[in-house]
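Email to the structure team, subject: FabA-like domain protein model.

Hi all, the expression group asked for a predicted structure before they design truncation constructs. Nothing fancy, just the tokens so they can compare against earlier work. One-line instruction: predict FabA-like domain protein, return tokens.
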Amino acid sequence: MMLPTVISQQIIDNHLANIDILLPADLLWFRGHFPTCPILPGVAQINWVMHYANQLFGPMPVVKSIDVVKFQRPLMPDDKVILLLNWDRANDKLTFKYLVHGEITASSGKITLCQ
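Reply from the structure team: attached below.
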């Protein structure tokens, strides 16, 4: 499986979203990355940002650039995570943050989309 388990999701004012997810140990992304200590690759995190933005906010423009991304804590099998999305339509900016256990920032970033 490529996507995490969604526990709940909430959209606020048509531009903010909170998605509570669980990272099952059998996610395809964990295989081989790394064999003795599996972590979720950054490319998977960006992929999920775009997937859920498209699902919750409607079709998104394509990615123009990934301006700022910080990986501060690895996301590991069985972590419970909150993905926060903020879609600034006027400036074509999508910001995100992954929180582990609802409070520890694992990663965050800003994506510029084409107009």
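Helices lie at 42-57. DSSP finds one helix and six strands in the chain. Ping us if the truncation boundaries need rechecking.
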